[in-house]
């Protein structure tokens, strides 16, 4: 068993080491506080020139136009035309076909003898948002077969 004098010397050395660590810890904390303050001032100075943060982009859409913009940013597709759902009442068969401004127009559309893909008078309607119109041409194309916003000449 070590003598008490040796033990007291070892205890003093460890206490000195612990005090040194406490000083070092205080220095590191002060340095961290300084760095955080510098970061905060740098962020506030650059706030005007930085692009919006991801957090700002994740806001809940409030208006119909915001909802359309969110949907179109998540799902990409053709913008030169949109598809309209059709359903055969007799057979129950259904599908999607490009919406045509000339569909069923007398003297222009030759349905059902000529398929839309082979028609020389194709005039496909582009996909549109609410931009300036009260109702876009493609509104209602997924709503239980409702068709609104088109003057089909029937």
Describe this entry's structure for a reader.
With 154 residues, this protein is mainly alpha-helical. The protein folds into 2 domains: 47 residues; 93 residues, no CATH class. 38% of the residues lie in helices and 6% in strands. It contains 3 helices and 2 strands. The protein has a two-stranded antiparallel ribbon. Strand 1 and strand 2 form a beta hairpin. The N and C termini lie far apart (110 Å). The C terminus is likely disordered.
Summarize the topology:
Blueprint: H1 4-46, H2 54-57, H3 64-74, E1 83-87, E2 94-98
Care to give the gist of this entry?
It is built from three helices and two strands.
Strand order of the largest sheet: 1-2
Secondary-structure content class: mainly alpha
Give the C-alpha Rg.
Answer: 36 Å
Task: Count up the helices.
Answer: 3
Strand content: 5-15%
The span between the termini is 110 Å
Number of strands: 2
Mean pLDDT: 78
Please trace the helix and strand order, writing H or E for each element. Answer: HHHEE
Number of domains: 2
The major β-sheet equals: 2 strands, antiparallel
Unreliable stretches covering 5 or more consecutive residues: 130-134, 141-154
3D shape: rod-shaped
Helix content: 25-40%
């Amino acid at each position: 068993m070590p003598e008490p004098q040796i033990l007291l010397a070892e205890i003093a050395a460890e206490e000195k080491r612990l005090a040194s660590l406490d000083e070092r810890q205080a220095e590191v904390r002060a340095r961290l506080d300084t760095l955080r303050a510098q970061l905060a001032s740098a962020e506030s100075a650059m706030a005007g020139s930085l692009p919006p943060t991801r957090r700002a982009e994740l806001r809940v859409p409030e208006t119909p136009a915001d909802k359309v913009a969110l949907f179109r940013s998540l799902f990409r597709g053709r913008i030169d035309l949109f598809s309209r759902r059709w359903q055969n009442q007799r057979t129950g068969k259904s599908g999607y076909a490009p919406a045509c401004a000339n569909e069923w127009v007398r003297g222009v559309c030759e349905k059902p003898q000529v398929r839309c893909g082979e028609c020389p008078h194709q005039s496909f309607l582009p996909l549109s948002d609410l931009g300036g119109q009260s109702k876009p041409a493609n509104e209602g194309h997924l709503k239980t077969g409702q068709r609104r916003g088109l003057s089909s000449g029937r």
